[in-house]
Amino acid sequence: VQLQASGGGLVQAGGSLRLSCAFSGRTFSDYAIAWFRQAPGKEREFVASINWSGGSTYYADSVKGRFTISRDNAKNTVYLQMNSLKPEDTAVYYCAGTVYRGEVRNTLLYNYWGQGTLVTVSS
After folding, report:
1. What DSSP string runs through 20-59?
2. Is-contact 43 35, C-beta < 8 A?
């Protein structure tokens, strides 16, 4: 399995970005996909996840109402739409895949990881 994250960049506070995660190598719909982020000097943290069908989504409290995760199983891609960005959203964002069902926030339960894409929000 390969995951390729893209879409990061520099944006002003209050702006928007859309991240993409392209999946290949296995049957995409067998996997739940999540976004994690890691800011300098901090641990990697859960941001959002989506189940195999797209019917269930989960969010960290810090991004609820501002970020939206979605998937297109025809394109083997997951998206993270990020609105109302804040300087504290600055981090490297990683997408990850797991075969576990339900709400999975533990990094140890994700088998496959993308390389990360940097999001920088200026104040």
Report:
1. EEEEESS-GGG-EEEEEEE-TTS--EEEEEE-TTSS-EEE
2. no
Q: Extract the tokens encoding 12.
A: 């002003």
What are the angstrom distances between the C-alpha of 113 and each of 2, 14, 53, 65, 107? 8, 28, 20, 25, 10
Residues pairing with 92 in the sheet = 38, 118
Residue 71 CA to residue 123 CA, distance in Å, equals: 30
- Residues 41-80 as b or e (16 or more Cβ within 10 Å = b): eeebebbbbbbbeeeeebbbeebeeebbbebeeeebbbbb
Rounded mean pLDDT for each run of 10 residues along the chain, 123 residues in total: 97 98 95 97 97 95 98 97 98 97 92 96 96
